Amino acid sequence: MKCISVVKVGSLRDPNPETRGQVDVLDIPEQELGPEDVRIKVAYCAICGSDPHLVENIFGWEPPFGMGHELSGVIVEVGEKATKKGLKVGDRVAGNFLHFCGTCYYCQNGQQQFCTHADESNNPGMAETVVWHESQVYKLPDDVSLKTGCLLEPVSVATRISDKVDLKLGQRVAICGGGPIGLLALQAMHMGGASQLTLIEPIAERRELAKKYGATDVIDPIAEDTVTAGLELTNGMGYDVVIDCSGSPRAAYPLPQLCSRGGKLIYAAMYPNDWEMPLNLYKYCYYNELTITGLYVSPYAFPRAAQIMKHFDLEAFTQKVFDIDDAKAAFECQISGKYPKVLIRCNEFPGE
Ligand SMILES: [Zn+2]
Ligand SMILES: [Zn+2]
Questions:
Q1: pTM of the entire structure?
Q2: If you measure from the C-alpha of residue 299 to the centroid of ligand 2, how many angstroms do you get, rounded to a whole number?
Q3: Statement to judge: residues 78 and 177 lie in one domain
Q4: Which of 170, 177, 242, 290 is the most exposed place for a label (fewest CB within 10 A)?
């Protein structure tokens, strides 16, 4: 079967074709179906902001390796013991690319995101079919199409961000970075009752989307100083909650200054793994009592994400679709940043 794979590691933006990273469509064998697994015929798989980092080889995997974790599809085969959730052939589903073992220390301690066996069944989703353990698979609500359904995983990340924020009605929230996760987190904070909601983002189209999704203010960090603008918008108080979804060191660094005293600062992106950020502990942790945290993946969030996803406005996220054979063009389009999301159609399902 076809599977979009990393065939050469390196940055996709590298101007030198000798060292540039490369993806291609490879013919790989279908995965074997275990007794507790289901086989999904993949409809759509979205390109994640983290996928180009995968091509850069942040995890140190040996190429070629398959890609894709934001997928939807239809069940075509159910293992004999995959009976706990009532899944059946023909179900429209999406799910979690990670399988948590349920047995290790972390799984037993309410921290399945740190499962010590989670990597063992991480099968690639930019493929014609994928095999997942039934615990990874969630039925899509009837009113969520397969095209929208592939966004269950990013919606689960917004759900996890909400869990970490634990927003109180009326709090002021700033979000830095208007990529897909930033815009979904913004919608979540709007639903959750933020009184003031500011997006910090250099791309004008994304700032416009944010206003449509409930942002009360936007800041262009190229045209104005983020901290000055944010403090002005909050009468000098700062925000109760600041969420970074940019992953950019330059954008992430000044964010402690945007937090109100006693506020919460969540670094909710993936960062360059060798970057260290100076932080004045006296000012921000002792005197201002900030709570600073981050997040890795989205444990315990998928069932709620599936329930709430129809309340998200996901139209702008499903505008650009490439066929699986056009993998290279799809990745070029993704790194151009022109669309909030780029989808790959792995199989045709008429009407979806
Ligand atoms: Zn993702
Ligand atoms: Zn585990």
A1: 0.95
A2: 11
A3: no
A4: 170
